[in-house]
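S.,

Sequence below, as promised.
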Amino acid sequence: MTTIATHQPAAEGPPVPAAAIASIPLSKLVVWDGNVRKTGAADGLDELSASIAAHGVLQSLVVRKGQRGKYAVVAGRRRYLALSALADAGTIASDTAVPCRVLHRTDDATEISLTENVVRAPMHPADQFEAFRDLIDAGSSVADVAARFGISETAVKQRLKLARVTPQVFDAYRAGELTLEQVQAFALSDDHGAQERVFGELPRRGGGPDDIRAALTQGEIPASDRRARFVTLPDYELAGGTFRRDLFAQGDDGVFLLDAELLDRLVLEKLQAHADVLKAEGWKWTESAATLDYEARAGFRTRRPEPQPLSEEAEAEHASLAAEYERLCDDTEEYDDATSERLDAIDARMEELSVTECAYGPEVLAIAGAIVTIGRDGEPEVLRGIVRPEDEPEDELPAKTARPRPELSAALVESLTEAKSAGISAVLAGRPDVALAAVVHALAGSVFPLCGGGSSLQLSAKVTHFREESKGASEIDVAHENWSDRLPAGSDALWHWCLAQDQDMLLDLLAYCAARTVNAVQTKQDCPANVRLRAADTLATALSVDMTEWFTPSAVNFFGRVGRTTIISAMAEAKGAPAKRSWDKLKKPALAALAERETAGTGWLPQLLRA
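The prediction came back faster than expected:
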């Protein structure tokens, strides 16, 4: 059991005189409820306990006599808690004598408690760092200092690092010209000359901690570098590599490799070992490269591995299933549940059988090579099937392809965008705030050509009429009837009516009138990048138009007007599942009707109408 300094257990005797310094048994001390320190009293108790165990109580507690022979600790509550923790741990006796100053009954305990916590000035961290340095320089070990002050050895090493930066940096910190984080950055290097050079360049470089670290580690390689991660720190160190560690960083973030030449040699050796393994695969050539940028990759064409033939057993099963599938499709007018389930089961099994191991054939191995490089994560990355331009067979060089036929006809595009235009109009009619912005934008673009112009509003009041039925067109028609009932006939009457209305009414009418001029219809003559169409999309975005509320694809308005491939692709996308083989057997009208049912309620839209 540890004895604290030279204090001995106090003997029972006469009452302690007021204002006297006395040794009072720890067991007779209690916490005073009136102590002004309510927050943080338990912070750092481990360090304080270790310090008291090593050095004793260096500052007397202030107490006042209470009831039943107890003394309440008015000032020194943390010292009392640390002593109690040592007693609970068996480090000291429960009746260890504690030096205390006993208050006179007329002393204001609250004022004294406040004075001890407020008036005292904390030690500057620089003084603390120097004190730790002096202890180590006097012969104490890091472990001994850590134990005596109840802190980790790493914390002691960090304080020594800070105390041993160049005097220029240390004095600037003491004077408040540098922050602790900046001094920690300077401590990354032990070279005072380098520290002083960077310190002198702070106004030009920028004084952030990251700027300081970057300046001190020029030419060094961070452990996060993909090359360092590829070689690994243990292997680099085993090969004789040296590195610098930032005591104030976590993990490998503060590790910098100092021998770039050694690292590059280790990288090449390890990559070459991987390349030697690739040679056994039979490639025409193999290479290794520490980095392989986009430009280098773009200079090659890549061949993909191809599925291998089915085994004889799998081939026979596949043929049997295909024959059954054809028979069920040919013999069935309308599928019942049992037939549909069987077709789905056959389809799934045939899909399983079709998934075979992929491999490169001898014809690819004869012209292609493989490259091993380092991936972003520091792991080896192998690129197989790389064909150099000079090795590409002439009959397989890319040829010019004909311009693809558009998926949607011009008439269908116009029909879909008319539904889109009607939807925008219907939403805009109820948004006077956006309508006002849209009208002002269109007018300003006309008055001020430098503003660029471009609007989907035809402010000559050329009303857009929708030829096809849609939900948006119906709502606009209803709104037109409602306004027609409100507005008076005749230009003069309309003028006086407008003058008599409040601003909200006029904004509502403005919104409706603006809505009737929206033109987002893409005709055959329009380029998709047309400024009017782009402005319509911008307007739709401002209105948060959701076209699923204004258009539902059906056999009549969409699926019956596109090709089979588009229909099947739409169903697969809407259902989030691969296309079924049975869809290929349906005639176009039946397929369009099926698509209408399969996409109903999914929120699927043609690409042209998506946000």
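Confidence is low (pLDDT under 50) at residues 5-18, 445-453.

Coffee later?
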